[in-house]
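Throughout our pipeline, every protein is held as a single compact record rather than as scattered files. This encoding replaces a full spatial description with a residue-level series of whole-number codes. The remainder of this section carries one protein's record, kept here as part of the documentation.
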Amino acid sequence: MLRTVAPPPHSPARPARAADPDRRRTSARTVLRCVLEHGPVARSTIARLTGLSPASVTDHCARLAELGLLREASAPRRSGGVGRPHLPLDVDRSRLVVGGVHVAVPYTTVALLDLRGRVVAERRLRHPDTEPARVLERAAGGLAELLGRVPERRPLGVGFAAGGWVDRAAGTVVDHPLLGWRDVPARTVLRARTGLPVHVDGHARALADAERLFGPAARGGRSALHLFAGNIVDAAFATHDEVHHGPRSQAGAIAHLPLAGGVEPCACGRTGCLQAELSERTLCRRAREAGVCDGRDPLHVVDAAAAGHPVAARLLRERARMVGRAVGLLTDVLNPESVIVTEIGVIHRPDCLAALRGELDPARAATVTPTSFPESVLAVAGGAVALDVLYRDPLSVSPQRI
């Protein structure tokens, strides 16, 4: 008679099952990122590109479709004209959105983004004052107003971005000297005002994530540097699909690096600090002193240059050259594969991009491109914080309404 043998008390199968949820999340993330990068794409192609089994891909695609993240493309493709048609999958841009909040010095940008990082709706809210609770309350109200325009969409969450020192894990703006903010609990305040999950990060890192997910220059690369030169000047560095944060998210604080040739006095007491030299405030003041424009908005300098004002064009090129020196300083240390620059002259004028590249050796100059989001950079920065979380853990999705 055959006897059944009981398994040993510590079977190796149980730890494997315990790890299944983590593996499932990793596989779901892999499938969603594959569709983001290659969609519309057939399930069989997803299996080939990811190395997952066809059955696993089918299972994950069904779950992601249930969550509203994937959809079947409208035009099925047949293989050899026989059998069932291939129904390629794509990211579903029609049902879900994320909210984005970017707090700049003169105004807050609120926006809704679809799952491919494209702006669905956007609004700028000028600051009558910069008291943190009132700024964040106005932002929450602005998001609610935008969501009211698209009642067919469900919000997944809110991303918040700002310059200065932003602690992603704590959800706080630790220090934003130009706004006068210290230890502002942005995540807690916005979550209480919106009832949605809120994710927080610095805007240079947020834009690095946006480039990594949606931009042609950084997506799929092994390393990328993003330099943001606005009123605040900071940077972010990504390697192998991860943006570096450092302890308490202090990575990328480059404001007081010395810039060769810099002459602008800094509040720290030195001369030629990178932010003092490159800040849009400096550009506007120089334009005002030169009689180019009213010197309140850097876009006015761009407009004056486009209208043929030679001094405006010179100021923009000079700033771009200094940005090029900053790029050279950072790339000497980090040696990234690609460099993305968000700077107003480089975005709008080919001569400024040429001036920036002229400060670099030809090999390095060829790696430098402007931001992939020239018309919506601040809106994308806020939304990208939430989209980065989504694409890292799509199975955590729980759509709600404001």
User: Anything to note?
Assistant: The longest strand covers residues 154-162. The longest helix spans residues 13-38. Confidence is low (pLDDT under 50) at residues 1-18. The two ends are 67 Å apart (CA to CA).
